[in-house]
Amino acid sequence: MKWFQLSLGPLQTNCYIVYNQKKNCLIFDPGEEPEKLIKFIKEKDLKPQAIMITHAHFDHIGALDDIRDEFEIPAYIHEKEAKWLIDPALNGSQLFMLGKMVRMKPADHILTSEGKMSVGDFSFNVYETPGHSPGSVSFYFEDAGFVVSGDALFYGSIGRTDLPGGNHEQLLKSIHNKLLTLPEETIILPGHGPETAVGSEMDSNPYLHGF
Fold first, then answer.
1. 3-state DSSP percent of the chain in helix, strand and coil, to 5
2. CA max distance for the chain
3. CATH code, domain carrying 56
4. What does the pLDDT look like over 124-174, one tens digit per residue?
5. How many domains does the chain have?
6. Which one, of 142, 137, 145, lies nearest residue 124 by Cα?
7. pLDDT in tens, 110-133
8. Contact 23, 32 (CB under 8 A)
9. Which residues form the Metallo-beta-lactamase domain (predicted)?
């Protein structure tokens, strides 16, 4: 199993396309530029099976409906942010997008708990990792050795917690109790910036020391 990373939109939000040998794929956080994303998927001859949302801030969901409609696939989101898809005040677009309100259709499937999950050909673990936002989740592919962490943990940094529903202490607990318990060689695929690894962040991330 492998992945492609596309940085989309003015905030350069990372969208990940996780695919297998059959070219079936899952799309994580289609944040912006749907035409670019659709073109990429078709050029690579990939077959999308679902859209997975790590959290529902506007820069992670802006292309959701275009991608969902183009490939006729379902979208998954945590129950604590299900309403954020349709509410610009909750997803942040009302505050940050200068008049461009982001409103998406409701998700097709609601995540209500942690644990093992299968979607199409893909099996993975869902971890609740709130703090950046109350419904943030991370998707861990144990056999392939990587985790899609949204805006919880970055290379040398952590997610901001000054937005509605953010909680700094809760975010640190999520990182320490969930993400840092994964094997140190696990690749972290964050919502912004370059990929990193669990061991690297344990050793050098200044936000994680002294917690």
1. 30, 30, 40
2. 47
3. 3.60.15.10
4. 999 999 999 999 999 999 999 999 999 999 999 999 999 889 999 999 999
5. 1
6. 142
7. 999 999 999 999 999 999 999 999
8. no
9. 12-192
Instruction: Give the three-state DSSP class for 29.
Output: coil
How would you classify residue 183: left for phi > 0, otherwise alpha for psi between -120 and 50, otherwise beta?
beta
Element (H, E) at 9: none
CB atoms near residue 55 (< 10 Å): 28
Compute the distance between CA of residue 157 and CA of residue 144 in angstroms, rounded to an integer: 24
Which structure tokens are listed for 137? Answer: 């989740």
79 DSSP assignment: G
Res 169: pLDDT: 96
* Structure tokens that stand for 140 in this block: 């861990």
pLDDT score of 99: 65
Write down the pTM of the prediction: 0.96
